[in-house]
Write a structure and sequence with these properties.
This protein has 2 domains: 2-42; 51-80, no CATH class. Helices cover 53% and strands 11% of the residues. The protein is built from 5 helices and 2 strands. A two-stranded antiparallel ribbon has the order 1-2. Helix 2 packs across helix 3 (25-42). The mean pLDDT is 77.
Length: 89
């Protein structure tokens, strides 16, 4: 996994990764191919809970103090002013 993350982050060539990790270049190729396959297969699996379910099971304390608004691609909760602490001086 770490090798694959290096491949993605640094854009390293397979031969360079093989030299760094002391493995054959074909091993690096198989690891990258397997990770790409897993990304393709598992990337289509829905992992987020639907918003309606979250709202239905939200504790009362959060329902009272948080206002939730939606923006395409953005979800966040607004924190009321009394809960924001000031930075130490």
């Amino acid at each position: 996994m770490f090798m694959f993350l290096n491949y993605l982050a640094l854009g390293s060539k397979q031969r360079d990764l093989a030299d760094r990790y002391g493995v054959h270049q074909s091993t690096v190729s198989r690891i990258i191919t397997t990770c790409n396959f897993l990304y393709t297969v598992l990337g289509s699996v829905r992992i987020w809970i639907p918003e309606e379910k979250i709202r239905a099971h939200l504790p009362a304390e959060f329902k009272d103090i948080c206002r939730h608004y939606s923006h395409p691609g953005l979800h966040r909760a607004e924190v009321p002013v009394p809960f924001i602490t000031s930075s130490p001086k």
